[in-house]
Amino acid sequence: MGELFTFFGLISHDHTFIYATHLALVVLIVLVLAKVATANMQVVPRGTQNVMEAYLGGVLAMGADVMGKEEARKYLPLVATIGLLVGVANIVGVIPGFEAPSSFLDFTLALALVVFFYYNFEGIRKNGVVAYFKHFLGPVWWLYWLMFPIEIVSHISRIISLSFRLFGNVKGDDMFLMVLLMLAPWLLPMIPFALLLFMAFLQAFIFMMLTYVYLGGAIAVSDDH
Prior knowledge:
Distance between the termini: 50 Å
Helix content: over 70%
Number of strands: 0
Number of domains: 1
Order of helices and strands: HHHHHHHH
Largest sheet: none
């Protein structure tokens, strides 16, 4: 099966070039959305401001269910920014002629590493080094020797889980879209496009939810957890 056709691929087929140009496009779209939404702020939001406020309200409500509203608001900038990047990146890949940056492992692994290091940093900062790593030992002292390596492996596996889940799903969607356009290049793909668009939002939602869950688990360390 050949490579996906992309407009940027007409310039160069280099993997790094394709990834960098599509990532730059996604970042530009996110910055433009943020600029337009905040350019003329109104008490009664309209247009882009209304959409962005609804989005931020939804992300905040999601986080409030995991760690409480006060803590969720604290981490809202990080989680909402990640959600925007992942969501826009996924949607770009649904448009024929473009490839989702999230279908590159470079992008998903970078996001997963940011989340991994940040939630561990927050856990240590809030609870202290000793208290944070103590909860890796489990509640039973005579199982400390077993629980600690299991917890370490479990936390490291989150990097793989976050990055490969997003990468695999989006890459699979790209392959599905390519086959679909080869078999039925006109009106019939419009129905599957709706499904692909739904999956783009779903993957962004899952990434944001897991980020909140990992942050909530890191900062809510207690002696009996």
